[in-house]
Structures are given as C-alpha cells and as structure tokens.
Write a structure and sequence with these properties.
The protein is an alpha+beta fold and 270 residues long. The chain has one domain: Endonuclease/exonuclease/phosphatase (Deoxyribonuclease I, Chain A, 4-Layer Sandwich). It is built from six helices and 14 strands. It comes from Altererythrobacter xiamenensis.
Amino acid sequence: MKIATFNINGIKARLPRLKEWLEETRPTVACLQEIKSQDDGFPGSELEDLGYHVLTHGQKAFNGVAILVDKNAGYSAPVEVQRGLGIDGPKDGEGEQARYLEIDVAKEGERPTRIVCIYLPNGNPHPGPKFDYKLAWMEKLRARMGEIWSSEVPAAVLGDFNVIPHDDDVWSPKAMAKDALMQPESRDAYFRLLADGWTDAVRTLNPRGGVWTYWDYQAGAWQRDHGFRIDHILLTPELADRLEAVGVDREHRGREKASDHTPVWARLRD
C-alpha cells in the first residue's frame, strides 16, 4: 500500500497537475487538502475516470479535504467513518471548517486500515484568535486520535499539519521564528501526538531533517530552495512496523502552475 498526502491549493487551478501526479505515481490512497471546493463542485468524475474512488468534505472557496482510493489495487469501496471534529471556526457564527475526513479501506476478507486526512489550521497571525483556534483544533485532533488508537485499528493520519516540528525541518529557523508554524505551543501539541505512540514516517527515515514539502510562491522560495516540512504522515505501531520507504515528489513543485506544496508518500508492506 502506498499512501500519500498532497495539499493541492485549489482543485480547479491544480486539476491538470493532480491528474499528472496520480497517473505518474499511482498512490493507493491519496489525501488531498485545500481543495477549495464544495462537494457538488468537486470534479470527482474526472478522478473516477482515472480509476479512483472519491470522497470529499468540501467548503466553498476555502479549506476542504478529499481522499482518493485506487479501484485497481484490490480494495473495496472506502467507508466513511467521520467528517469533522466538532469544533467551530475562530469567528462567531462561522460553524465548522472542512478540515477532517476519516475513512476505512480494506481488501476482501482483510482487516480494514483507517485513513485520516487533515488540514490543520495555519494559526497566523500569532498571537490571536486564529492561533488559539489552531491549538484548540490540535487538542480535538489528539482526542480523536486517542479514540482511534484505543480501537486498535491500524491507522494513518496524513495531511498538512501546519507545524514545523524541528529546526532542521526549515531552511532558516530564524526566518520563521515568529510564525505560528514554529511556536513552542504548536510544536508541543505535535510532539504530544508522537508521545502518544504515533510515528512520524518521514522523520523516521530522514532523522537528520533537511526534507522540505512546501515552498512559498513569494521571494523566489522555490528557486532558492527556501522550504520547510509541514506535510506529515503519522502511523500507528502496526503500520510503522510495515514502513518500507518514504518520499517527497519534489519535482512536481517545479511544474507550471504547481501547488506551493509537493506530494509526500509512504510505502507499507502488505
């Protein structure tokens, strides 16, 4: 099983790049963030034509997550388990933002694997209500991940966590020191997930850091390789034991009209 996460930064603007990536790399499960589309406006039929089951949790113009499952990999149609964490946005009356989607995937007669796709709040500007919302969302996420852990189902939580865990996960710690992505509270909340027993797949196989998953559109960040790692894959012990390889499809960031993120993947033994 090859699982992947990709913040596409708008499905309408990035659909050609997404289809290229799916056709060239063929992940078994792909978690997408920032689709920026309501469910009924998502071009699911085009991705189904590529051989994928499509589940979405969308929102008009902002946020939104989706999960794609390869029909040709021997898996049954995915089963939705939960959408949303039950936490309202930072503005009064805003309601819940579309940032969380949880499903089960399984082959015939086999135990299901839980897949969770998240788009964690950015939290800027810091300090302020958006940062407070980020920390509250992470607390809700931890609680839900604890419930998944207690169910003893093999599980992976993938997505844009909007947290730079370590100083060697960013081109310049000094340049990002005041950003919400690197605040001690953000990092501590992330490390609490790991302390609960979850494995950071990319970090496990790249312990010295230096792996970027995001390059800003501004100031020539891509051309100067001024990037950082905020797209993560967390695994329960059963899946961590099956971890064979991880990778960042860095080349896709350099294509025309690319997302500012690049796909991140992990390959698990059957």
